[in-house]
Design brief:
The complex is a heterodimer of chains A (613) and B (344). By secondary structure, chain A is mainly α. Chain A is built from 17 helices and two strands. Chain A has one domain: Cytochrome c oxidase-like, subunit I domain (Cytochrome C Oxidase, Chain A), CATH 1.20.210. Chain A is 61% helix and 1% strand. In chain A, strands 1-2 form a two-stranded antiparallel ribbon. The radius of gyration of chain A is 25 Å and the shape is globular. Chain B folds into two domains: 110 residues, no CATH class; 176 residues, Sandwich (Immunoglobulin-like). Chain B has nine helices and nine strands. A five-stranded mixed sheet of chain B has the order 3-9-8-5-6. In chain B, strands 2-1-4-7 form a four-stranded mixed sheet, with no helix packed on it. In chain B, strand 1 and strand 2 form a beta hairpin. The chains are: A mainly alpha (613), B alpha+beta (344). At the A-B interface, helix 4, strand 1, helix 8, helix 9 and helix 10 of A face helix 1, helix 2, helix 4, helix 5 and strand 6 of B.
């Protein structure tokens, strides 16, 4: 079938690179914006790590950047320390690991891996990015205002976040934070609707749900989680805006501050926490699932083996999706919530460890007796699994309410989530970039630099976050500007210095990646058609796929994406587009029966019109 | 000037690195293509996996043993012993899983690194295996849940009737403590009555508040159940006693509580830790503003008799602030003066 849509387009610079409706360009826009934010968020963490690791250090040299936030004695202002912690969290969780990860790879891979010309609605997709951009601009501005950005922690618990008299960051900075987040959520919802619609409606002929790569499954479930949970954050934010601006008392009650008793009565700060974590916990999986999907794909490809337990992997992800909505209150065991509720949430929380465990065992079995190629993407995927294990296991401590009494809001929590969701997802993102870079830009990234980047980052991340477990078991609370006020916490200074040094090295190592990324974009080796000898159909497109992805007809899919090292086959991979009738030597008995259906697939009507024009 | 030199040096170093990198790529192009998969990099990376595994396990074990006494905070409450036990049992179970899975994760890549001679095993699933490793973690977790529930319910159960009731209030950026006085009943409060002196907003229409007293430190009796009534005046705080394994948020408008029994006096702890200056401390663990890291209050645990003596010696808040007698309704003034121990 002929299709005439790409040559009729008159692409100007603006429509091609700025207000583009092409999913590949939008993906790259998300990626570049995500990288930009990762640098800002990372740099912030370096500044507060300097404070924590070297409390006596003269930070005068930061004055050109931070201005008045450096006190006359050359110290970091304690309130700006909190602002840095808050913005680091917000930026990393939402702008880097949600938009940067999910936005990039859902956009890039969904049409390419399911065999679609583009997203269901290119226009909404473009809007989604530009809402994210708008949100980024507002958030970025908030960093530079005189009263400072939001400083009440990324969870913005009221009353602290509701009362400008409680801290200066709760003034204009908090307002901008809320506005930015509302735009951000609009972006997520527009994106999510598009991902779901595209996956359900625009799969190519033969691409049934049981033949979808695990990447697509993970993006699909992530979008569903986002669509169901993010609106709750809008509600929470809206009520907070009312409390801040119109004197309502949703979250405020019996407050005496700055010599004044406020009129608000009957509100509940706990209500906000319930609403926030109703998004906040699923958010963890919004961040993590795409990374796990990407890893599944990369580990299978580079082990030259089918992913072990494809169905179990999908069921685990489904289980995580459902359970992620009913575990939120484990963040609130010691908030004064009814202890009985604590028991229920503890039970549900520990159940979610089961599908996670299954995923780990399946990854390990995929590696077992593989023929493993260490591409940089593969290294980062193995790193991800290692973090997922380390950070996941500490979740079993924290999910147990009785243990959480002591560990809640200590560095143990910081260590836990930075490994299991922060670093693991970050590694998923890097793995994805290394793996799909050839498809994005038609060139290869340098693998040697990739290895150096991996080992520095991998060792660095462990050196940063593993020691925090000890500090956490010792009871050190989070978000402390300094520990010298307490006898109990006035120790581990050497360890804290080590952590800070490791953080600086890890941060610097990311510049190796940046160099590799931008250099290879223009000067890298030209990529072969299928550099990783992978099965999924994005590798059947031209080296640099144009608008519409496939120049001719979209290929038909006949088999699942994991036919690696199939006994009898000459090569160690069989593309999804190869019909069973051509691989009689390697077919399993039930696959021979499928040959009869191939004619039917070929005769199916192609509904190209559905592509938005 | 030094700043400029540093920037210049960094710039030059990166320029050299970039030049080296270009040279390296050009050399590779001249040498021609080779199959990267069975090349040196693959072997080096596979070996590094094992090196990483061994090194990190050595570091982990060495540090965990060496620093044990530092990160393992001594425990000074009855329930703390049981929650610590639960913690260490969880450590054993997760530790075993951690060691096994991490070893496999790094060993497999080394063992099964790419080789032209071998083909990977086509092994898409095994239902029996998958059921086993769904059920085994489920059983282990069920055990931990059950154990956890028992401990949690015990810790959270209501305090016995005869428990010492003490009120602790967090505000930006300190704590205040209030004892019920000789009548063993805390007086009522209203946040609208708070002023610069009456930090609690004590209500002097309530006779129970006449003998309430507010010392500078939190004093606790050893061996007696204590119920802390926790509240906050402005924003969220969290009442955290690290040595007692106690933590509970202080919420404006919603009083919370935590009941526990101290088991070691300050003196005993000084002997145990070998630190003559040791003090129990109360800290805040919920971000509350710029002074969050400085909300320290000293906690003193006495022998019960000593505690009773200390308790009896305390002067009531009202006797220290006799101006507030004017807030007491006239018909209760006499009673107030008696209860607050104010001389006529």
């Amino acid at each position: 079938m002929d299709h005439s849509h790409d040559h009729e387009h008159k692409e100007t610079f603006i429509t091609k690179y700025v207000f583009s409706q092409d999913h590949k360009t939008i993906a790259k826009q998300y990626l570049i914006t995500g990288i930009f934010w990762a640098l800002i968020g990372g740099a912030m963490s370096i500044i507060f790590r300097l404070q924590l690791g070297f409390p006596d250090m003269n930070l005068e040299f930061l004055r050109p950047i931070l201005g008045g936030w450096i006190t006359p004695t050359g110290k970091l202002d304690p309130e700006f320390y909190l602002a840095l912690v808050t913005m680091h969290g917000t930026i990393m969780v939402f702008f880097v690991l949600t938009a940067g990860l999910s936005g990039t790879f859902s956009n890039f891979l969904i049409p390419l891996q399911i065999g679609a010309r583009d997203m269901a609605s290119g226009f909404l997709n473009m809007l989604s990015y530009w809402f994210f951009f708008l949100s980024s601009v507002v958030m970025f501005i908030s960093i530079f205002i005189p009263t400072g950005p939001a400083s009440g922690g990324w969870v913005i618990y009221p009353p602290l976040s509701a009362l400008p008299q409680a801290m200066s960051g709760s003034g204009l900075g908090m307002t901008l934070w809320l506005v930015a987040m509302v735009f951000f959520i609009v972006s997520i919802l527009l994106g999510g609707v598009n991902y779901i619609t595209t996956i359900i409606n625009l799969r190519t002929r033969g691409m049934s749900f049981s033949k979808l790569p695990l990447t697509i499954w993970s993006f699909f479930l992530t979008a569903i989680i986002g669509l169901l949970s993010f609106p709750v954050l809008v509600a929470a934010a809206l009520l907070l805006i009312f409390d801040r601006t119109f004197g309502t008392s949703f979250y405020l009650s019996e407050i005496f501050i700055n010599g004044e008793a406020l009129p608000q009565m009957g509100g509940s700060p706990i209500l906000f926490q319930h609403l926030f974590w109703f998004l906040g916990h699923p958010e963890v999986y919004i961040v993590l699932l795409p990374a796990l999907g990407i890893t599944s794909e990369i580990i299978a490809t580079n082990s030259r083996k089918p992913i072990f337990g494809y169905k179990a992997m999908i069921i685990s992800m489904l289980g995580i999706t459902v359970l992620s909505f009913i575990v939120w209150a484990h963040h609130m065991f010691v908030t004064g919530m009814n202890p009985f509720l604590g028991s229920i949430f503890m039970l549900l929380t520990l159940i979610i460890a089961i599908p996670s465990a299954v995923k780990v065992f399946n990854y390990l079995t995929t590696l077992w007796k593989g023929n493993i190629v260490f591409t940089p993407a593969m290294m980062f995927s193995i790193g991800l699994v290692s973090f997922f294990i380390s950070g996941g296991l500490t979740g079993i401590f924290l999910g147990n309410s009785a243990i959480d009494i002591q560990l809640h809001d200590t560095y143990f929590v910081v260590a836990h989530f930075h490994l299991v969701m922060g670093s693991a997802s970050f590694f998923g993102m890097l793995a994805g970039v290394y793996h799909w870079f050839p498809k994005m830009f038609g060139r290869m990234m340098d693998s040697k630099l990739g290895y150096i980047h991996f080992w520095l980052t991998f060792a660095g991340v462990y050196l940063v976050f593993f020691p925090l477990h000890y500090i956490g078991i010792a009871g050190f609370p989070r978000r402390y500007y300094s520990f010298t006020n307490f006898d109990a916490f006035n120790m581990f200074t050497d360890l804290n210095s080590l952590v800070s040094i490791a953080a600086i090295v890890t941060f610097c190592a990311q510049f190796i990646f940046l160099f590799n990324f931008f250099y290879s974009m223009f000067r890298g080796k030209k990529a072969p058609a299928n550099p990783w000898r992978s099965n999924t159909i994005e590798w059947t497109t031209p080296r640099v796929p144009g608008h519409g992805n496939w120049p001719g007809e979209i290929p038909i899919v006949y088999r699942w994406p994991y036919d690696y090292s199939k006994p009898g086959a000459a090569e160690d991979f069989i593309l999804q587009t190869v019909p069973f009738s051509e691989t009689k030597e390697s077919n399993l008995p039930h696959e021979n029966e499928l040959i009869a259906e191939e004619e039917e697939l070929k005769n199916m009507k192609v509904e190209e019109e559905s592509h938005g024009h | 000037m030094t700043g400029f030199v540093i920037v210049l040096a960094l710039f030059l170093i990166s320029a050299i690195l970039v030049a080296l990198f270009r040279l390296h790529t050009l050399v590779e192009v001249i040498r021609g293509k080779k199959d990267e998969r069975s090349g040196n990099s693959n072997k080096v990376n596979a070996a590094l996996m094992v090196v990483f595994l061994v090194t990190s396990f050595v570091l982990l074990i060495w540090y965990s043993v060496k620093e044990f006494d530092n990160y393992n905070l001594p425990v000074a409450s009855e329930h703390g012993v049981t929650t610590d036990q639960l913690f260490w049992w969880t450590m054993v179970i997760t530790g075993v899983v951690f060691i096994i899975t991490q070893i496999l994760l790094f060993w497999f890549p080394f063992k099964y690194q790419f080789s032209e001679k071998r083909k990977a095993l086509f092994y898409p699933d095994n239902t029996k295996l998958e059921i086993i490793w769904t059920v085994v973690p489920a059983i282990a977790l069920a055990g931990l849940v059950l154990y956890g529930l028992l401990v949690w319910n015990k810790v959270m159960q209501p305090a016995p009737k005869d428990a010492e009731v003490i009120e602790v209030m967090g505000y930006q950026f300190a704590w205040k403590v209030r004892y019920p006085g000789k009548d063993k009943e805390l007086g009522g409060y209203d946040y609208r009555l708070i002023d610069a002196v009456n930090a609690f907003g004590m209500n002097f229409n309530d006779r129970a508040s006449f003998d309430d007293f507010s010392p500078r430190e939190l004093h606790l009796p050893k061996g007696r159940p204590v119920e802390i009534k926790i509240r906050a005046r402005d924003v969220l705080h969290s009442f955290y006693l690290p040595h007692f394994r106690v933590k509970m948020d202080a919420v404006p408008g919603m009083p919370t509580r935590f009941a526990f029994t101290p088991t070691k006096t300050t003196e005993e702890m000084r002997a145990e830790t070998g630190n003559p200056d040791f003090n129990y401390e109360l800290a805040c663990t919920e971000i509350c503003g710029r002074g969050h890291f400085s909300m320290r209050l000293i906690v003193v645990v006495h022998e019960p008799e000593e505690y009773d003596k200390w308790y009896a010696e305390q002067e009531s808040w009202l006797s220290k602030n006799p101006d507030y007698l004017s807030k007491v309704p006239s018909d209760m003034k006499e009673l107030a003066m008696v209860k607050a121990n104010i001389a006529q």
